[in-house]
Amino acid sequence: VVSCLATLLRKQDLSAWSYPITLQVYHGLLSFTVHAKPKVRKEAQHGVCSILKGSDFLFGDTAPAHHPAAPSTAQFCVQEIEKSGGTKEATTTLHVLTLLRDLLPVLPLAVVKTCCETLLRVMTLSHVLVTACAMQAFHSLFSARPGLACLSARLNAQIITALHDYMPSENDLQPLLAWLAVMEKAHSNLARLQRDLCWGHLPRLFTAAV
C-alpha cells in the first residue's frame, strides 16, 4: 500500500500539489518514515525520496526549482528530531537523519539552512551514532554539488566554520576520518561555488589537518 501510494503521488502533475488533499495524503505517507517496523519505514522513506526526486513534472521544461512538498517535508524532519530530542528516543532521530541524508540536496535553500542548524544542534548531544548520521547527511549534501537554489556559497562557508567546533579528538579515529571527509567535500564544493571564499577558509583546514 505504501509503495502504491508513493507511485500514485509521484505521477501527479504539478497543479495537483496545490490541492490540500494531495499534501494531506503525502503527509500520511511521510508519517510512516519513522514507523517502528523497519520494512514499513524503509518503504516509506524510499517512497518519499522517489516523490521529491523523481516526480514526472520535475523533468519538464517548466520544472520548478524544487518539489512543492519539499519545505513541509523538511519541517516534518526538524519537528521529529526536536520531539525526540536525540536522547532517549535517539532511534527516531537516527531514522529522520537517514531520510535527511537522502533529501538535503533537493530541498530549497531556506529549509536547508534550518535542517543544517538542527544537524549541528543534535551533534552537541555527544551521541556517537547520531553524530555519525549527521556527518553522513552533511557529506551527502556537499557530495551532491547542489545548485544555488539549495546551497549558497555563504551557507556552505557558514557550515564549514561551524564544523570546526566539532573536530573530534585525534584519538577517535573513525569520527576524525569522517570529519576530514566531510571537510574535504565542503571545501571542494565551496571552491566550485566561490573560489575566493574557499581560499580564505583553507589555512584553517590545513592547520587543523597538520
Automatic annotation (TrEMBL):
Entry-linked InterPro entries: ARM-type_fold (IPR016024), HEAT_RRP12_N (IPR057860), RRP12 (IPR052087)
Pfam families listed in its UniProt record: HEAT_RRP12_N
SUPFAM superfamilies, A to Z: ARM repeat
Domain annotation RRP12 N-terminal HEAT: ranges: 1-143
UniProt superkingdom: Eukaryota
PANTHER family (UniProt xref): ARM REPEAT SUPERFAMILY PROTEIN
Protein name: Ribosomal RNA processing 12 -like protein
Species in which this protein is naturally found: Chelydra serpentina (Snapping turtle)
